[in-house]
DNA sequence: ACTGTAACTTAGAAACATTGGT
DNA sequence: ACCAATGTTTCTAAGTTACAGT
């Protein structure tokens, strides 16, 4: 499924060798900016504990940010329907919205998450409506009852994608399809997947899609309005009397499970969820939302030690699904804040921890040695903890669950990691490690250990985390990822040049972001036309190279002795084929002709005589060596720039910056950077990130992670 | 220690919306 | 003005961790 993995995954990344085990105290270098005039500083309320003692006001009334849509969009409303809607929306925007400033007043104990809680329950997808389009079996149209037709639809929707070709997906789908057929349509002739033809349904869906695309503005408006109404109703909860946004209030619709990687259950039917399957969690005195007609809630509870509003059990993997508040809510914000504070606390202990595990790498107890080695990787490479998984899940690993075959040794001290991690994303990394670590891996891989065996057979995440708690309260393996990501980011940001332009600063910001994303191995699949884009740039590079070659040849014509000093002159680069040259010359000729025509038109108007290509050739003045050298130089520079762009583009195409920005990098680092370098926060945090991080943007420019 | 349950964060893909270059 | 590139939001899968029970 992850086609991107297998093909392009082998980018080599190197991390610095042993030198950085000698832990330098880079933490306290709080190079503050004393040289900024106070007037220039942004006035902000610093987030310091001493200042936190103003508990009088818990909430502040503020005007909600104006709707950021450009006004032009609104003016375009040609119909009455829209006019009306626009004015309504405006009114809503101008309403005063309460912002709960929980960060002014930290709570120590957060085991109780709320005292009152009201909400509308989850929103259920509409019941299935039959379309009556018949799939074919052995070429014959087949009548299906709605329950079966719906499942046939699920497969039809997948036709044309990789899923439809995936054998496991097909097998699991057909098994479940048959189960339902047998129950709902006894005696149904459908027996073999290969004889099924879902294309009539697929074609029907394609038509529907076209129709939807061709809808008029008015029709689209109506749909949008309906959607908005659902959001208005189900999208909000009242938590301790405050209006807070609900995240995923929609019950997941039925469909075929799309597991990632080689998931054994991919294609399995994910059944429709009914109110009877759902537990509602709500305040004791709150009105329980009415379940859809003719249904009852599975259970109603009033547990204020948890944050979910509704819960159900899903049938494919037997796991729970929850309805939670949105990322910008106070509950999520508070736990985010706690997460980063914990990571910052690790900073105080990290030297000690590193010293300890470095010692323990040589411990005579194998279990201790393994623990130390695993911790070394978690710390240095930001690997995930790596819980053991059942064989009804995709075979992926993290640090503790690494197996023999995932790690190879290359003398004298290189370790090569190659395994599938979370979401079956490939982790490939060549790392130089300390002699001791290298030796340890050698020992852990010693026969009779073989492929399929655990590398750390005396270790699991529970043992590791238990041990970590001894160094710091609440410390677990995942804190290292947060810590190292945020810390790396802060260090990388120091490369920002003070007096550069905003764009250059943003480039520095994104570079730092990318370093973190690379550290955490955050990848994204390469877009379909990515190779086209690269080819275009590569073509430009080749063109420049060929031009440079032509220039160098001219130089050699003037002074053949140059060849001795500059052997690269007159040498064609690899990749420049005869075809390429032919192509290039043709294009050049075209260009010349076009230009000539244009010039001649002008000349005609001015009454001058017309020119031919030959005339141009003769008119060209003889270049000097000096001039040619300059040209050669310019071209070389251009080639370099283009090659950089190529690398940049390629790396960005496979690296996803969002995940680290959202989950790993302490937003206060970003905010402080903005203030320090005078970059508007909107340039780095979009609307939803500003909302998610509203607790963080109030730091001052001297914030140090 | 081992297993299963529960609750939460983290993750990439896909759908959808906006922007900006020709 | 069009449409491809890019950015944002939604969706839900896949992790981590704590903890209860055995």
From TrEMBL:
Catalytic activity entry: ATP-independent breakage of single-stranded DNA, followed by passage and rejoining
InterPro entries, per database record: DNA_brk_join_enz, DNA_topo_DNA_db_N_dom1, DNA_topo_DNA_db_N_dom2, TopoI, TopoI_C_dom, TopoI_cat_a-hlx-sub_euk, TopoI_cat_a/b-sub_euk, TopoI_cat_euk
Active site per the UniProt annotation: 664
CDD domains recorded: Topo_IB_C, Topoisomer_IB_N
Residues covered by region (Disordered): 1-83
Isomerase recorded as keyword: yes
Entry EC no(s): 5.6.2.1
GO biological process: chromatin remodeling; chromosome segregation; DNA replication; DNA topological change
Biased composition, class Basic and acidic residues, residue ranges: 62-71
Keyword list, A-Z: Coiled coil, DNA-binding, Isomerase, Topoisomerase
Family the UniProt entry places it in: Belongs to the type IB topoisomerase family.
Name the record gives this protein: DNA topoisomerase I
Organism (species): Anaeromyces robustus
Taxonomic lineage of the native organism: Eukaryota, Fungi, Fungi incertae sedis, Chytridiomycota, Chytridiomycota incertae sedis
């Amino acid at each position: 499924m992850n086609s991107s993995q297998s093909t392009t995954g082998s980018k080599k990344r190197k991390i610095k060798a042993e030198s950085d085990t000698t832990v330098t105290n880079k933490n306290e270098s709080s190079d503050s900016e004393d040289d900024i005039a106070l007037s220039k500083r942004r006035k902000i309320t610093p987030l310091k504990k001493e200042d936190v003692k103003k508990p009088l006001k818990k909430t502040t009334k503020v005007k909600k940010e104006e709707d950021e849509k450009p006004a032009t969009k609104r003016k375009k409303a040609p119909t009455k329907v829209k006019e009306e809607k626009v004015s309504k929306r405006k009114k809503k925007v101008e309403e005063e919205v309460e912002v709960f400033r929980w960060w002014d007043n930290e709570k120590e104990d957060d085991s109780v998450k709320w005292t009152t809680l009201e909400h509308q329950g989850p929103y259920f997808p509409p019941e299935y409506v039959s379309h009556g389009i018949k799939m074919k079996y052995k070429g014959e149209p087949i009548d299906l009852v709605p329950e079966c037709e719906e499942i046939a639809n699920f497969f039809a929707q997948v036709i044309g994608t990789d899923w439809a070709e995936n054998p496991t997906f097909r097998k699991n789908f057909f098994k479940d399809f048959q189960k339902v057929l047998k129950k709902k349509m006894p005696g149904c002739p459908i027996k073999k997947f290969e004889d099924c033809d879902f294309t009539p349904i697929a074609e029907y869906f394609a038509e529907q899609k076209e129709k939807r695309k061709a809808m008029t503005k008015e029709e689209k408006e109506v749909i949008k309005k309906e959607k908005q109404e659902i959001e208005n109703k189900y999208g909000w909860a009242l938590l301790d009397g405050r209006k807070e946004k609900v995240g995923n209030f929609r019950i997941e619709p039925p469909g075929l499970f799309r597991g990632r990687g080689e998931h054994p259950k991919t294609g399995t039917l994910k059944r429709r969820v009914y109110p009877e399957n759902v537990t509602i969690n709500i305040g004791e005195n709150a009105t329980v939302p009415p379940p859809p007609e003719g249904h009852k809630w599975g259970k109603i509870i009033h547990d204020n030690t948890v944050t979910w509003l509704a819960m159900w059990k899903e049938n494919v993997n037997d796991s729970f699904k929850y309805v939670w508040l949105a990322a910008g809510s106070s509950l999520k914000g508070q736990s985010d804040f706690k997460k980063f504070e914990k990571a910052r606390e690790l900073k105080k202990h990290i030297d000690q921890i590193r010293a300890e595990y470095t010692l323990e790498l040589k411990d005579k107890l194998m279990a201790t040695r393994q623990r130390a080695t695993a911790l070394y990787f978690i710390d240095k490479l930001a690997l995930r903890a790596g819980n053991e998984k059942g064989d009804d899940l995709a075979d992926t690993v993290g640090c503790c669950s690494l197996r023999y075959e995932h790690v190879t040794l290359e003398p004298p001290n290189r370790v090569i990691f190659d395994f599938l991690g979370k979401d079956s994303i490939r982790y490939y990394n060549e790392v130089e490690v300390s002699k001791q670590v290298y030796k340890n891996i050698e020992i852990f891989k010693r026969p009779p250990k073989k492929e399929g065996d655990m590398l750390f057979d005396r270790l699991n995440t529970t043992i590791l985390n238990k041990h970590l708690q001894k160094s710091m309260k609440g410390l677990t393996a995942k804190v290292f990822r947060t810590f190292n990501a945020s810390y790396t980011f802060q260090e990388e940001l120091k490369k920002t040049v003070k007096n550069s332009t905003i764009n250059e600063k943003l480039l520095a910001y994104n570079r730092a972001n990318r370093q973190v994303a690379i550290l955490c191995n955050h990848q994204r699949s390469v877009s379909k036309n990515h190779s086209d884009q690269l080819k275009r740039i590569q073509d430009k590079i080749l063109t420049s190279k060929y031009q440079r070659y032509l220039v160098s040849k001219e130089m050699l014509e003037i002074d053949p002795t140059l060849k001795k000093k500059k052997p690269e002159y007159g040498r064609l680069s690899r990749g420049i084929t005869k075809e390429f040259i032919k192509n290039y010359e043709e294009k050049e000729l075209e260009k010349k002709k076009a230009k000539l025509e244009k010039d001649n038109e002008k000349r005609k108007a001015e009454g001058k005589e017309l020119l031919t290509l030959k005339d141009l050739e003769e008119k060209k003045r003889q270049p000097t060596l000096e001039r040619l050298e300059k040209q050669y130089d310019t071209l070389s520079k251009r080639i370099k720039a283009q090659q950089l762009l190529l690398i940049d583009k390629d790396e960005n195409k496979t690296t996803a910056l969002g995940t680290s920005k959202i989950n790993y990098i302490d937003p206060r680092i970003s905010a402080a950077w903005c203030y320090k370098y005078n970059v508007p926060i909107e340039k780095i945090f979009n609307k939803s990130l500003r909302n998610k991080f509203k607790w963080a943007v109030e730091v001052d420019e001297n914030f140090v992670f």
